[in-house]
Structure formats: structure tokens, C-alpha cells
Amino acid sequence: MTDSLRTIRVQEALLSKNRSIAERLRRRFQEAGVQAVNLLSSPGSGKTTLLERTLSSLSRNTRAAVIVGDLATDNDGRRLAGKGAPIVQIQTGGICHLDAAMVERALAGLDLPSLDLLFLENVGNLVCPSAYDLGEARRVVLLSVTEGEDKPLKYPSAFRKADLVLITKADIAAAVEFQREAALEGLRRAAPGVPILEVSARTGQGMEAWLGWLESLLRQEAEP
Amino acid sequence: MTDSLRTIRVQEALLSKNRSIAERLRRRFQEAGVQAVNLLSSPGSGKTTLLERTLSSLSRNTRAAVIVGDLATDNDGRRLAGKGAPIVQIQTGGICHLDAAMVERALAGLDLPSLDLLFLENVGNLVCPSAYDLGEARRVVLLSVTEGEDKPLKYPSAFRKADLVLITKADIAAAVEFQREAALEGLRRAAPGVPILEVSARTGQGMEAWLGWLESLLRQEAEP
């Protein structure tokens, strides 16, 4: 067997095992009445800043928690702490994505039935996390205006499975000469029909729409 | 054998094979008198824009070429074309990094002895490419001012092996409230002693220093 064939076989086995753990997670989330949202993006697209503002802005009735993955450091976990939401930091030790087993272990630190919403802040990486189902109800992919308009076409796997795309750092779009139409066109090609919101966690632009999207997700859960 | 142990074994075998191809490449580069520079960064940190400006600014005596890796599309290859330098686009088909075998195959498209400088523009990813030696003489890691100051500590593997760090998009540092001292401190901790240049391919800031760094690399080659 060639090296690359062997790699593909091992990867298939890993992904298949990941899928079965993810299905188990999905059932647990459903039974507990929790909506899990997997957040994917490049490093520095603003996942943590978005979550900081989101945790501060959610209605008091919404009980949220965050599982946050990083290669190293607990910087993001510390940034998110103190907003009333439980935070569990995963350090992947160099692994380029979260997987379902890591999330399952992290759940030991959370009282799932007490929650409505669970954010899974993935490792900053626009490639590897896309292959790993974490049992999430929805997958949200962030694209910051600083990253360049062609990223959806250059990283199709990340965007193809998105349920929502957030164009982040919208407040500096002009300063970085963001080509909005080109970006929207790329997103429409990479992720046909996927809703797109333009947000700025700094100025609050678009945050109402994002919070509305989350609330409609929670209402969906509450319905029979 | 557990799945994860099996994965580690296969990864070790792959990395070991990569190392031996990389050594072969390094010898070929040395024999041809070519300095290969591996460029690593997150998606959208400005590798292609930097190379566009670099190719236009290099002295006429310097014969450069670029091998550029992307998951999909030949957008970057097309952007770099028409500047007098041969460009070879690699589409990795979803693989999250370049490896030495891909570079070796791409060399079929280049007349190595006619070159002085070969840029290897890696897939935009701050995790996976760091493990793969491409036979390069130098590794340059880009960190854009939009990515956040703590990236060097959060992605230590990428920065640890850098020979030079370029802080890119310096012209918009103020607009994105870039915390310069925190970023420099993080870099000093993640990559002690590594030189750091602050550049903007848009305004030209720092380009002279970057071109000077490249020229000193070429002079080093020319010496016995």
C-alpha cells in the first residue's frame, strides 16, 4: 500500500469514527434542548470578539456556554470569561481542528440540560475543521473583510457546508478596500443559497440580525 | 493499535518521507545556486500581494520564480503572472499544506539553473504547513496587523521555525487598533531572536528592508 493510500484509509477511519461520536453528541444536544453552533474561520477573523459581544448581548433568558479550541494558550477562554456564560477551553496541542471526541470530553465540564445555546469556537483554520462534524445544529463560517474577496472560492470546503456566513469587521471595509460585490459573488458560488450577514462586533453593525438569527434557532428548538 | 496511535505512526512515516525529499530538494537548490524561500501565513495575510510587489521591485539582475499552493483555483497564480517571473500553480485538492513531493513535481515546470530566487507560497494556514520542510533555505512567516496580537503564542509551531517574520498591512495598523508592543512581545516569546520587519505592500512601507533581506540572502549564496 502506498503512503498516500494508507493515509487516506486512516483518515477515512478517523472521519468515520468522528461521525459516530458526532451523532451521539447530536442526540445529547437534542435531548438536552441545546442548540450547538460550530464557528469556523481563519485565525484572526474575529470569532472570539464576536462571541464576547454576543454573550454580552443575548437576552437574559438565553443560557449560553462556549467550548473554545486553540492549539495553545487559554487566551480566548480568558477573554470570554466573566460574562455569565460557562467557558471550557480545549488546547489541541498542535492538532489543527476540533473533533467530536474533544467536544465530548469537554462536555464533562458543562451542565448541558441547563443550557439553551452552546458555541463551539473552532481552531482558527479555514481548511481542517471543515471535515469534522461536532454534532452541531448549525455551522457558521466567518470571513473578515481583511482576508480578501476570493477566499470562498479558494477554500470551498469550509464555505460549502455553512448554514450562515458572517462577513466580519465590516466597520473597516472601506479602510481595507474590501470588494463587497466580488466577495458576495464568491460566496454565492461557493455556498449557494446560504444567508450572509455583514457584522462588526466593534461598532455593533449587524449584531441585531445575528442575534435574531440565533433567537430564531432557539425558537425552532422550542417548537414541537 | 488505537486510531490515534495509528495516525501518529502514519504521520511520522509521512513526515520522515517528506524530510528525505526535502533534503533532495535542498541539494538541488544548492547545486543550482537557487535560494528557496517558504512563505507561511493565515489565509488573507497578504502573501500574494507581497509577492506581486516583490516581483515588480526586485533588481533586474535577480531572476525569481514562484511556486504557489492553493486548495483550489489558480487565482493567485494568475495574479502573479505577467511580472517576468515564471509561476507554477499547485492545486492541493483540499490538502492543507504544500509538501516536498508537490514542490518536486512542480520543479518540472521550471528551469532551476536559470534562477536565483524561488518563492514557495504555501497554502494559507497557520497550522499544517509548519510541519513540512520544503527544502527551503529560509522560512518567512507573515502576520497581518488585522489578525490579533496573540497569534504568535496561539500558533507557536508556525512562528518557532521562522527565519524572518513580516508584520504585513502595516498601513492599516491604526485603523484596526493594532497593539504593536503586544504583538512584538508575543513574537519575541514565540520566536526568540528572529528578525521582524513591518511592511505594507500597498504603501511600500518596509519594502526596502524586505528587499534588502532578500538581497543579503542572495549575496550569501554567491559567496564561497
Structural summary, described in words:
The structure is a homodimer of 224-residue chains. Chain A is an alpha/beta fold and 224 residues long. Chain A has 8 helices and 7 strands. In chain A, strands 3-2-4-1-5-6-7 form a 7-stranded parallel β-sheet, with helices on both faces. Chain A is globular. Chain A starts with a helix and ends with a helix. Chains A and B meet through helix 1 and helix 5 of A and helix 1 and helix 5 of B.
Concise structural overview:
Chain A has 224 residues and is an alpha/beta fold. Chain A is 40% helix and 17% strand. A seven-stranded parallel beta sheet of chain A has the order 3-2-4-1-5-6-7, with helices on both faces.
Features:
homodimer; 224 residues; alpha/beta; seven-stranded parallel beta sheet; globular
SSE layout and pairings?
The structure is a homodimer of 224-residue chains.
Chain A: H1 3-32, E1 35-40, H2 47-57, E2 64-70, H3 75-80, E3 87-91, H4 100-106, E4 117-121, E5 138-144, H5 151-154, H6 156-160, E6 164-168, H7 180-190, E7 196-198, H8 207-222
Parallel strand pairs in A: 1-4, 1-5, 2-3, 2-4, 5-6, 6-7
